[in-house]
Amino acid sequence: MPTAFRYFVALTLSLVPAIATGQGTARSPQVAWWPRVPLQGSLVRVVVRPSAGDSVTAVYGELAGEPLHFEWSADGFRAIGATPFEARDSAVVRVVMERDDSTGDTVIAALPVARRRVPRERLRVAPQFAQPPDSLAERIRLEQELVQEVRQRAHDTPRLWCVPFVRPRSSAVTSVFGVARVFNEVLRSRHWGVDFAGQLGAPVRAANRGVVALVADLYYSGTTILVDHGAGLVTGYFHLSRVLAVPGDTVDVGQVIGRVGSSGRVTRPHLHWFAAYGRITVDPLDLVRPNGPMRFTTR
């Protein structure tokens, strides 16, 4: 029997969390997300709540083109997704629910996205320091492809963490996510992570359980560790002076995996902490906010 689908497109701004529902049946499911209006470059928790007596057996979908990895929990099927930094005012979430009687629902919702307001850093430098020379273009391209492969493979890894994420350092944050960096009046880049203060050689800890997916010396980020936490999530630890793990190692939450350094394209020792959901780079502090989207994703 062909699967029957009911389609409903919803946009909601007022509920906390925001909710979209199917239409035309007593057993229509609800799709909710938190935060109700996430910022650009944020993690989002998506929850599907079947009605009482509904026989939903599987849920899958995507948010902003990235797969969602739903798991059953006490409050329904839940997953973590992300909103792109370049999202203008919304991102599309599509959720498909399958039932044991071969029927199903597809809910498509326009998830509202708010502008992230960040400071600008204005610098005047000699032209050769504003961007790398053309001779390095191929190296940089290959390194970016390497990192993108790690990020995409995280969708194939099952969720590896079962306790809350922690900060990789307890020191002060010295630069926030998304800061615009303007060289000689031209926007050249953004700060795709969070910087923590640290003296040379200070410990750097894994934010949660995961598998070391990459250890490399990269042009921009210097000595770099990428940890695949599964279910689409990757964290990165940049500008290290020393690494204490190798690719394939399973590391635990809080384990020391490296030492603060100043490798790569920086001028002083510090830790740059990076986070991504698949191809979408997100504010890593979303992983550790007490009331953030990760709050109910442990087991």
Question: Which secondary structure elements does this structure contain, and how are they paired or packed?
Answer:
Layout: E1 4-10, E2 18-21, E3 30-34, E4 42-49, E5 56-63, E6 66-68, E7 71-73, E8 76-83, E9 90-99, E10 103-112, E11 120-123, H1 127-130, H2 137-153, E12 173-175, E13 180-183, E14 186-190, E15 194-196, E16 203-205, E17 210-218, E18 222-230, E19 233-243, E20 250-251, E21 256-260, E22 271-277, E23 280-282
Parallel strand pairs: 1-10, 11-13
Antiparallel strand pairs: 2-3, 3-4, 4-8, 5-6, 5-9, 7-8, 9-10, 12-15, 13-14, 15-22, 16-21, 17-18, 17-20, 18-19, 19-21, 19-22, 22-23
Describe this structure in words.
By secondary structure, the protein is mainly β. It folds into 2 domains: 4-112, Immunoglobulin-like, CATH 2.60.40; 120-287, Distorted Sandwich (Glucose Permease (Domain IIA)). The chain is 7% helix and 45% strand. The strands form 4 sheets. Strands 12, 15, 16, 17, 18, 19, 20, 21, 22 and 23 form a 10-stranded antiparallel beta sheet that branches. Residues 1-16 have low confidence and may be disordered.
